[in-house]
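Our collaborator T.R. sent over the components below with a one-line note: 'Predict the complex.' Nothing else. No constraints on interfaces, no templates requested, no preferences about which chain binds where. So this is a plain run: every listed entity goes in together, and whatever single assembly comes back becomes the starting point for the next discussion.
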Amino acid sequence: MGRFVARRLLQMIPVFLGTTALIFFMVHLLPGDPLAALWGDKAPDPVQLAALRHQQHFDEPLIQQYLDYMGGLFTGDFGKALDGRPVLDKITEALPVTVQLALLAFGFEIVLGIGIGLFAGLRRGKVFDKSALVFTLLLISIPVPVLGFLFQTIFGINLKWVKPTVQDSTDITQLVLPAIVLGSLSLAYVARLTRTSIAENIKADYVRTAVAKGLPRRRVIGTHLLRNSLIPVVTFLGTDLGALMGGAIVTEGIFNVQGVGHALYQAINMKEGATVSGFVAFLVIVYLAAGLIVDLLYAVLDPRIRYA
Amino acid sequence: MTTVIENDSQKSGRLEVGTPLLEVKDLHVEFHTRDGVAKAVNGVNYSVAAGETLAVLGESGSGKSVTAQTIMGILDMPPGKVTQGEILYRGQDMLKMSNEERRKIRGRKIAMIFQDALSALNPVLSVGYQLGEMFRVHQGVSKAEAKAKAIELMDRVRIPAAKERVNDYPHQFSGGMRQRIMIAMALSLQPDLIIADEPTTALDVTVQAQVMDLLAELQAEYNMGLILITHDLGVVADVADKIAVMYAGRIVETAPVHELYANPAHPYTKGLLRSIPRLDQKGQELYAIKGLPPNLLKVPAGCAFNPRCDVATDLCRTEIPALHHVTDKDGKELTGRRSACHLWKETLHG
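Returned assembly:
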């Protein structure tokens, strides 16, 4: 087990280097000059611009800039934004909001997704199963922005159950509606994956053995059937946790949640290279960590992998 | 060891000698499929007494496994459906019991051993857990106690280093060891009756004999009834007391094991016996019964075996033969022997 973790950690290094390099150079390929843009519509003053360039090290060769940046990353320095604020500050400010939002969405999709999937799989071909299939298909086919605005209109404006947009991003109760929107697509996938897996495994020989042992139905399903059926679902959930953390840009935009997605979107608009790279580098770490956790969980759930 | 296999059956009272533990009476099972109704079991009768071994012999599709699954109550319903008959356990019809009553018989009174232990054991739970589960669920013992009992059981079925291996998973054992674990699981609560569905089919020939011997030994020790379902005549000869041969959902012949081998009273049994390879036939072509087992959706009229039978007459093609009592040449009835063949006399004596 220790060797497995060590190997996985080593594998992360090239992935981390590759992704950060890609994003660093891609930001520099974006058209437009972020410093010149500070003058707005006016023509920038060449002397001041040159001074700013020097201050931001933009006058150095790109490779040098990259090496400096990576050197900073490994000492925990994510660089500074154009306004002089450390990027790490921005991350630590936005992160708690996004983590709350992502975990809410994650919990929502796990509880409902696995619940719906389990009952649909056990009652394959019955009314509940068919309704679940239609319901999840609907969720999959509605784009997130549409669902977001729809929920905003229904629950925020018409029914007035919640405020249409988030006023205070640190208040978790205000994040419930955005979290439902954020988790809905994954919920559909989780439900379908669970359903298929349950319906397939319920015919397995070991389930028949469990029945033949005279175990109560609850135990046959909970201990024997569900545990085997959740293996593929866990894989999906792990990668999805990473996606929820970074992929909330649209949802955060609709509901005005001041999280990572929101900050990243603004930074891209302003062509703030250091901020974009910093956030993305951070998200890459989150993704890799989520991937590692999935693999470990996978090994816990399936001993055939643990000892392979 | 006696603590593990505490005799639970004594509480329910000993049966008188010869009284059947389990009696299957006129059982009919159908499968409703898209293509029609498949009659998998058509009026099967058999019984097993304590300490007795009944071998049920037949090709795939003969209904031998379906009958066993119906007894266990693990038949998938739907598509399966019991349309007629009784399954009496100690005189009580299990088909009339509630689900909860039946569940309490499963594993505790009647246990089952499956063919392929690798797929029949749960891949993600340790064998110790799966064995201990029997005690935890049925007797409510603690986790630690269940584990200790699991180790005792593994010792009992002669798994080497049981203590070290109790936390291992099924895929870490060899095929023979896995089947021993299945046997241990079936034995755990010392049931009255064990149904073994092709218990050695998935094993190497050398291991087959060991597993079969172990099963027979434990059966004798605990005086259990055993229903041994198999298509392998070789497995049956050493351990069975009596044999029921099944074909297309019916029993076509029953007999004490040695009499059946020496002198079959049904052409199908005769064909099966002839198709066993023998050393003294080296160089000769191996005999095989011509044709294939019937499609259960359209079983031939009359005797289901008639299209494959060498001696079939017009009568065989129109009338389903009853399971006749069989007599010797002097007309004296042979006990325990029956044949569902119009021509049993010619087959037996001719």
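Summary for T.R.: Chain B has a mean pLDDT of 85.
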